[in-house]
């Protein structure tokens, strides 16, 4: 496995920090949306449907909600890919150690 440089580690940690902040921000928005009065929400939605003016902002959600979700998905995808590579290397090392123990046992 290729060793990560300090710069790569710092970049990866910064990306994880960004994902944490984005997740926290989205959680606040989702919690706020969940706490909305269902009747008031339906009234807003019906008004929007009747006027043809559908907007996230009118529902109390950030205008860039979908962009934030897509960005978070990308960050999480990269993090999972990198972590999977680390786990696979560790698994391979453990398999090799186990094989060596069986051969010498």
Compile the SSE list and pairings.
Layout (H helix, E strand, L loop, with lengths): L5 H29 L3 H14 L13 H40 L1
Task: Please supply descriptive tags for the structure shown above.
mainly alpha, 105 residues
Q: Compute the number of helices.
A: 3
Which percent bin holds the helix content? over 70%
How many extended strands? 0
The oligomeric state of the chains shown is single chain
Mean pLDDT across residues: 87
Protein described:
It is a single chain. By secondary structure, the protein is mainly α. It has one domain. About 80% of the residues lie in helices and about 0% in strands. The chain contains three helices and no strands. The chain has helices at about 5-35, 40-50, 65-105. The longest helix is centred in the last third of the chain and has 40 residues, at about 65-105. The chain is elongated, with a radius of gyration of 23 Å.
Please provide a brief summary of the model:
Helix content is 79%, strand content 0%. It has 105 residues and is an all-alpha fold.
């Amino acid at each position: 496995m290729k060793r990560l440089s300090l710069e790569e580690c710092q970049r990866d940690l910064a990306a994880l920090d960004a994902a944490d902040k984005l997740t926290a921000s989205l959680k606040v928005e989702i919690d706020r949306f969940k706490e909305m009065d269902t009747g008031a929400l339906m009234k807003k939605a019906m008004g929007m449907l009747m006027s043809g003016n559908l907007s996230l902002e009118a529902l109390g959600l950030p205008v860039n909600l979908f962009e934030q979700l897509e960005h978070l998905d990308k960050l999480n995808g990269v993090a999972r890919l990198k972590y999977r590579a680390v786990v696979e290397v560790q698994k391979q090392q453990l398999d090799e150690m186990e094989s060596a123990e069986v051969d010498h046992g």
